[in-house]
Amino acid sequence: MRSGVEELASLRREIAEGPDPAATQRQRDKGKLTARERIELLLDPGSFQEVEQLRRHRATGFGLEAKKPHTDGVITGWGTVEGRTVFVYAHDFRIFGGALGEAHAEKIHKIMDMAIAAGAPLVSLNDGAGARIQEGVTALAGYGGIFQRNTKASGVIPQISVMLGPCAGGAAYSPALTDFVFMVRETSQMFITGPDVVKAVTGEEISQNGLGGADVHAETSGVCHFAYDDEETCLAEVRYLLSLLPQNNRERPPATAPDDPADRRCEELLDLVPADGNRPYDMRAVIESLVDDGDFLEIHERWAGNVIVALARLDGQTVGIVANQPQSLAGVLDINASEKAARFVQMCDAFNIPLVTLLDVPGFLPGVDQEHGGIIRHGAKLLYAYCNATVPRIQLILRKAYGGAYIVMDSRSVGADLSYAWPTNEIAVMGAEGAANVIFRRQIAGADDPEAMRARMVKEYKAELMHPYYAAERGLVDDVIDPAETREVLIRSLQMLRTKHAELPSRKHGNPPQ
After folding, report:
1. Residue 461, φ and ψ in degrees, nearest 5
2. What is the mean pLDDT of residues 339-351?
3. Which of 179, 124, 174 shows the shortest CA–CA distance to 349?
4. What is the DSSP string of 368-433?
5. How large is the C-alpha radius of gyration of the chain?
6. Residue 325 CB: number of other CB atoms within 10 A?
7. What is the b/e burial string over 386-418, where b = at least 16 CB atoms within 10 angstroms of the residue's CB?
8. Contact 355/392 with Cβ under 8 angstroms?
9. Which positions are annotated as active-site residues?
10. Which of 37, 80, 92, 337 could be stapled to 304 by a disulfide with Cβ–Cβ 3.0 to 4.6 Å?
């Protein structure tokens, strides 16, 4: 028995070191960590329990029968992050370039099934060259099994994809099915067809990073939620994100003991937000003032910057924040902003995270490109997401709230539990100038001094329909509040809504706009 144990320990040491020191050095030369080093950074020290470490493939042909390394190029198992169970699989690029074969896929399938059964988050550390060509269709079928499980787990457990190397072809669809995608600049790329194929088909020449690097997906495509300069920072942020999320859809997010007083006044908000609706300001500063210790995790920070989506804490409880950003396109809603906010609202609703929506929106972005690009159906995605959400929902109107964008951004009429407004709020079909030009166009055109008449009609319209208490008088806003008291009002309201219970009609699933 003792000799057997010694042999097992020696074998485990050999597997942990990897198949070839030269392969490890090549990994380091690219500025990349090994799969095991990444797992150590992600999980609490000493908590990782590996599954099927001794697994080998059984494929033959093309020289595979002579090369059967343990793990088959993927490390699977579970551990803890801040004491809570997390499942993980990590491609080992040193073995077959991290390419997926039958045994490799079966290991991933098993750990995904375990994560779903245990009700715990799943983190994939992706660094692979796609399907193992030597194994043919069985490798492709392995990807199909991963996609099926990604879909089964969607909205049940948090799924996080961390891109730490190449991810090409069909392999890119698994991260796209998960809740969050992290990427590292220079070392990670995602694309369906690589630069060589693009050049052969279209004649365009482009580098791997130019086609599918972290910055491209963080700024242009929106595929990537977070992009970082190094793996250490990236994995630390994954840990932070996990601390804000529940284990599964049957639990609430973990609460912390706050140091920031719930009744703290936010006097800075009185000067931060200009009363003039045409003057921009940084909505991030508003969020920072309201949340615990000014700390929040912005998602999709560099894509569709005219809307902000973020996770934060109020009185120690996780909340999701959706906010217009007046510094970018005046905070209008367009195609990308609608997509971004809709997906975030759905994620929060799936994982029992209350929603706070901060409004300062002049409407939807006009233009031929927007209309032809389908702003109607894309805007409807955000409307659908809010209408379908059953978590506590609070709307706060800071300044402008015009037209359909006001309705879509979680108004009382689409199911917000509470709606608050600051004394600077303007809720209307459109701005006063535009409304006066439509309603009083004949009087303005026939006046001796059209500009003076226009100014008088604008003032009249504002006085009648856009004063700060108009919506409150009609029950569409629950209260007009002092901006300095916003944090306390939000926290007290969320405490009351914590036991909210709402049910949707019985159905297999909805048919949201696409």
Report:
1. -65, -45
2. 98
3. 179
4. HHHHHTTHHHHHHHHHHHHHH--S-EEEEEEEEEEHHHHHHTT-GGGT-SEEEE-TT-EEESS-HH
5. 26
6. 24
7. bbbbebbbbbbbbbbbbbebbebbbbbebebbb
8. yes
9. 169-170, 404-405
10. 337
Tell me the per-residue pLDDT of 438-461, one tens digit each, with 9 for 90 and over: 777 777 777 778 788 777 777 777
CB contact at 8 A, 328 and 305:
yes
| pLDDT > 70 fraction of the chain, expressed in percent and rounded | 98
For 93-104, give one letter per residue: b (16+ CB within 10 A) or e.
Answer: bbbbbbbbbbbb
Task: Supply 315's token pair.
Answer: 């009185």
How many angstroms separate the CA atoms of 56 and 66, rounded?
12
Chain segment 116-158, per-residue pLDDT in tens: 999 999 999 999 877 787 777 888 888 999 999 999 999 999 9
Closest CA to 34 of 79, 81, 68, 75: 75
The angle, 0 to 180 degrees and rounded to 10, between the axes of the packed helices 335-350 and 375-388 is: 20
Quote the mean pLDDT of the chain: 91
Q: Tokens 């169970």 label which residue?
A: 85
Strands 317-324 and 307-314: antiparallel
Q: Residue 45: which region, alpha, beta or left (left: phi > 0; alpha: psi -120 to 50)? A: beta
**Bridge partners, residue 125, by sequence:** 90, 162
- In tens, the pLDDT along 61-104 reads 777 776 888 888 899 999 999 999 999 999 998 888 888 888 89
> Could you tell me the pTM of the whole model?
0.93
Helices 231-244 and 35-42: angle between axes, nearest 10 degrees: 40
